[in-house]
Amino acid sequence: MLEKLRQYFIFGRLGVKLYVLAVITGLLSSLAITLLRLTIDFGQMALFPSGEVESYDTLPWYWLLTMPILGGLLIGLLFRGLNAEQRNTGILHVIERLSSYEGRLPWQNAVRQFIGTSIAIITGHSVGREGPGVHLGAASGSILARGLELPNNSVRILVASGSAAAIAASFNTPIAGVIFAMEVIMMEYHIASFIPVILAAVTGAVVCRLTFGDDTVFVNLATQMQSLWELPYIIFLGVIIGFLATLSLKSLQLFSGIFSHHPSWLRPTYAGILMGVFGMAVPEVMGMGYGIISSISANEIAIGSLIIILILKLLLSSACVGFGIPAGMVGPTMVVGACAGAILGYLGNSVLPEYSSSMTFYAVIGMCAMMSATLKAPLAALMAMLELTGNPEIILPGMLAIVFSSLIIHDYFKLDALFVSILRYRGLDFQNDPISQALRKISVGAAMQRNFVTLNQVISAQMAMQTLKNSPEWIIITRDRIPVVMMPASDLARAVSVKDMGENTDIDLMQIPGTRRDVHKISLHTSLFEAFQALNEHHVEALYVSRQNAPMIERIYGILTREMIEAHYQLPKSVTK
Description:
The protein has 577 residues and is α/β, with parallel strands linked by helices. The chain folds into three domains: 1-212, Orthogonal Bundle (Clc chloride channel); 228-426, Clc chloride channel (Orthogonal Bundle), CATH 1.10.3080; 440-568, CBS-domain (Roll), CATH 3.10.580.10. The protein has helices spanning 2-10, 16-47, 61-78, 84-87, 90-101, 107-122, 130-147, 152-171, 174-186, 191-212, 231-257, 267-281, 290-297, 303-322, 330-351, 359-375, 378-389, 395-412, 418-425, 434-440, 444-447, 461-468, 489-498, 528-538, 562-568, 573-576, and strands at residues 452-456, 458-460, 474-479, 482-488, 506-508, 517-523, 542-550, 553-561. It has a six-stranded mixed beta sheet with strand order 1-3-4-6-7-8. Strands 2-5 form a two-stranded antiparallel ribbon. A hairpin with a 2-residue loop joins β3 (474-479) and β4. The longest helix has 32 residues, at 16-47. It is elongated.
């Protein structure tokens, strides 16, 4: 039954089938995010004497000091003895697996992500749950796709669908979830991906609203721009945010290199020591920090506190992630941006109160500009701004701030997006050029030639003539049941026609005149990008596409040549060398 279901999804055009799988992925992803949020909330309510979420300021000083240290130690022990690949988590892990493994995410890493993130946030580390949520959502899509043995291009779409559902369920922002998946995870826009990703994001948002209500994660962010005279000041805000985003990336690189020669399982404890020391002085910097944004919108926080929180939040979140805490930086960077925006809003109100908008207005602009600059995701930030405020008029000033913050970090300082920078900093080969993108969208099943036959190296003339009656285009020649080369069927037809052979005459297919191409095996589930890499890596001229239908039983479904790949996307000569 399962094998029939797999073949139903593998062969033919997916179309509506993929849409159904995207909805299932969205459901699985949003349930994982819901479980993560509830685990963190109930864990904090059970641990804190006040019984409230993120009420670190109600804890005695010795709790504030010891909780992060114990949390870091527990996380270190959880990841002890694992290699670097087994320790990888978060959005970075998802992008890396999409780049090098076509979206195949191990379930074990996702389980460690869930446990590690829960411990980190409950015990007060300055990290966010959005990155881990994206990992869990992407893993949901990957595990579903791999269970059905879908082609790798479909695996990628379901990974993006799970990521979109995760962001939609985290913030209750389905549009931002879709754009985030395209800009940050897939790093491309493709019409074939939009519908399943949209369906998954809608599913995630529905589950979020059924569980947590209709409000977005940040409430009371309704804002209005006072005057067009504020636009130059908003440009200045964008420039400041660009510098802060640059500092954030540089800080992360710095902390990633500090004590890198120490045992990896000890480094989260170092983050815990930092969090405990500074958390005693400023408890507001502990945890995700979303309460800070609520305090800004309610005008319940002083400007001096905002400055201290901004500095500490930026450095501590970089330290936590750099030292190996398995959680994200999306939430903390948004809090830093909100603090910076609120500070500039306060200064504007102090100088020109009649022309200046509220602190909340500038906090929202700063929050989304910081998100855009750090992640290189301007459209996702704009959509998040629109959905969080419900005010389309914020788009105009938001666009200005986002443009100038991006100009500073990406054009002036020449820094790439947060996760791509870390991948390249670690020496990983990240390929996301247009050719690679195009080839990853197409499975080998859509491009392979199926008009072939498989023959032993030595056959009778009768078998040769019987084979040629079916007009195959290619012949795969096997030796001891292992394919070794392939040749055009026309070469066999020519050899049979020029020789006067009896029916029982043996023909050695390796000896007759003809063009033979060395072959190598490739899985039916791979993409054309992987096929192109296999041709170059194994120095062969063709591939035979196979799949294991049962233990020890493998079936060949088609053959693939470089010309067939180029027919789907014409590769420049410099690439095909």
